[in-house]
């Protein structure tokens, strides 16, 4: 039976209050899914099918309740061993298929075999394939030996033939010399040998092949071992031969050794074995030699036909394996994962059921209960599974339901750290802010279109590419295709604002608002221009590009814009920290973290942003650097020409005072408040405090009291921690604002590089009338644009945008100390293997 009325977990009840509690409106990615700790009690007879259905559902992360046991002590160790043996056989098949160039069928079908039948079938196929391989190896070895023998017969035959011709010629000469009576000058020994055949020495011979790299050492050792009482002749074989023992191509020398006596022969045989020199018999007379050559050739032909038939039989076996390989592999991995999961469950004392605990999303309760019921019915078990929710103080895992569009953005956030359970997720804002900040640095609508075209190809072909194995870099690009698409779209947008198409301005939204006063002012500064029309409606007026004031104007624009964007994003981070505090009912962080941080940041850099906007709107020539510096150094001095609005001096004094007050506001109250609540808990007011006090106090004090109620409250430790946090924020407010100036620097670098490539490469070479120079110029321009601007600059802007999100934005509110929800899921297992 399935219990349908679970008790409410404190985490679940907190999640149910998401609509209230002062947090943002419910969003799929804003907060992680509400999780619950559940317990399932499964009868032994339906355990396998139940875990299989839960794996198909993929919404339950089970705990290992047998962590103290070794893998061999667990209940299903023998089944896992069987799965491992079957996986070994499948790897054996895959290795041989890859060697034979046979690819597996990627089409998955229903498997008619059950696990036991598959085990028997894999064993039979392995035995058959192993037997075929052994026979094939023996035939190949014999074939290689015959090929070496054939080589030896050829080389040794050539040597004997040339030697016999030389000996016959010498014999004829000697017979001619000895036709008369022996002269006094004739050697006595030679005369004896000619007259007495019994005194001639019968020499033995050995022939074979020795590796070429060992030939010199082979000859030297033979000479020393026999004290020079041998005759050795070596000749290089034209092509490498396949060595019978190693089955590898080896360059070898053919050799013939003549020796005298059995003792010398024994030494030579030992040396041949030591140098892996293969020996082959060589007949004495020519007739036997010719017969041996014919016999070897016939055997080689027969063996070749036999080997071809064996390979064809092996290929047929491998093809039959390939047709079902993926299905078998999927079944084996599925069974192995099921038994691994079953080993995580504890066995009840009656040994008739298994008990498991794990995390599941609240929304999956009904689906899990349905899976348990189906498993009970399909396994024809007389006892149903029990499902119940447990109360716990453990921190649940973090689970976001993402799709193929949002998953890549969520991965960017998770690479920094997984969100704590139900804290605000930066991924919601990253979907827009990340590609936008990238585009601020990359703004050129020509380059943006190039990126968009490349990304649209990946998106259009995503079904085809998803089923293929891509390289590491291509895999990363394919996984982030929607991130790159958003980056490209925002780059086109900011390119229209900067009015740059490969650094060339266009009058897309109308005519320029300015015109030359006279024909001679074409290269003049903006003072030589007259405003003759309405202000250019969108983006930078094209007249700025190419003028002498272009760089100062764009520098000022992009630098101030970077500060505005940075202050806006940092304020967004602080505001999100407020919603985090309200969601977790953490009033301490609202009053002693959010409020002073907001005041400090906006008293300084919020005020600077307001001055920038006022200066833009009024066209004043006030020096903002001077204003901000002397706001600290001489706050009571008159502003003079740097005054932008009435009462500015008073406003600056108030803001400076607020900034100074906010620092001790962040530092001092929070540690004393935590100390007071700790004392209240140990003065008999614990029950009242738990009912009425903020959840934040419980969480703040939990590290000190929950683990050990008698542990002293370390006020100094808490105070130092708060001091570090305060110093980090105060200094970070300055350094983080300065860090956003990278938007200005990289945007300027991208624009100038693009301008250099256009002016100094494309236009310069186009000025020549030589078609070859023009083609070379276009090729260099295209290569530089792709290699530098579309690859290196894209990567650079991506990394800088990543840093701005991780450090400048997320450190205002994001703890990132959670852990991912990792459910038992067959889909996830197959993805990891793929």
Give structural notes.
Essential component of the vacuolar proton pump (V-ATPase), a multimeric enzyme that catalyzes the translocation of protons across the membranes. Required for assembly and activity of the V-ATPase. This protein has 834 residues and is an alpha+beta fold. Among the domains are: 144-167 and 202-305, Alpha-Beta Plaits (2-Layer Sandwich), CATH 3.30.70; 554-683 and 715-767, no CATH class. It has helices spanning 10-16, 47-57, 77-100, 115-177, 188-195, 215-225, 262-274, 286-342, 365-378, 406-416, 427-442, 445-460, 462-466, 472-479, 481-498, 550-583, 587-618, 624-633, 648-667, 669-681, 686-692, 695-705, 715-739, 742-766, 771-809, 826-833; strands at residues 35-43, 61-62, 204-211, 230-236, 241-242, 249-250, 252-259, 278-280, 346-347, 353-361, 386-390, 514-516, 529-531. Strands 1, 2, 9, 10 and 11 form a 5-stranded antiparallel sheet that branches. A 4-stranded antiparallel sheet has the order 4-7-3-8, sandwiched between helices. A two-stranded antiparallel sheet has the order 5-6. The longest helix has 63 residues, at 115-177. The radius of gyration is 43 Å and the shape is extended. It starts with 9 loop residues before the first helix and ends with a helix. Residues 1-26, 685-693 and 702-710 have low confidence and may be disordered.
Which helices and strands, and how do they pair?
Layout lengths: L9 H7 L18 E9 L3 H11 L3 E2 L14 H24 L14 H63 L10 H8 L8 E8 L3 H11 L4 E7 L4 E2 L6 E2 L1 E8 L2 H13 L3 E3 L5 H57 L3 E2 L5 E9 L3 H14 L7 E5 L15 H11 L10 H16 L2 H16 L1 H5 L5 H8 L1 H18 L15 E3 L12 E3 L18 H34 L3 H32 L5 H10 L14 H20 L1 H13 L4 H7 L2 H11 L9 H25 L2 H25 L4 H39 L16 H8 L1
Antiparallel strand pairs: 1-10, 1-11, 2-10, 3-7, 3-8, 4-7, 5-6, 9-10, 12-13
Helix pairs in contact: 2-8, 2-9, 3-4, 3-8, 4-8, 6-7, 10-11, 11-15, 11-24, 11-25, 12-15, 16-17, 16-23, 16-24, 17-19, 17-23, 20-23, 24-25
